Amino acid sequence: MAGLWNSGADDGAVDLLAPALGAVIGLGLAALLGQAWFESRPFTVGLGHSLIPHVADNAFPSDHASLFWSLGAAVIATRAAPAAGWAVVALGGAVGWARIYLGVHFPIDMVGAGGVALAAGLIARELAPAVQRRIAPAVNVLYERTLQRLHLPGALFPRHANPAA
What is the pLDDT of residue 23? Predict the structure, then answer.
């Protein structure tokens, strides 16, 4: 996301704000869903062994998959960078499979994360116009001021309004 933000034009970069908000919303939805539905972890019910140390807390939905898939779904749904969004979704699939393989999640935990991601992507798409109008201008000002304050070379930050600075 940081690479896409920094390498894009101003209007393309601010398109990434809604997907970032979508990822945060996805994690919030996952937390709420986790409060409503408890799912044990495989190693806590005597099924297999956990190949990594993990606390025996609620497994549903997977926070890791929820984050990756919510971000990817939001990037795709808002059309900010669809190819990058699909790459993040694929990476999330690998993360989800690894969490199942390592014995800390059941497949149903990934199904829940997928549902969370779909909701987060749709919410991000609906919020995108408001984010563009209200939040993006303030973020751009903050970005520019940060670059100026840190005296960072414009060549490293193509979005910078004044590359000579």
Answer: 94
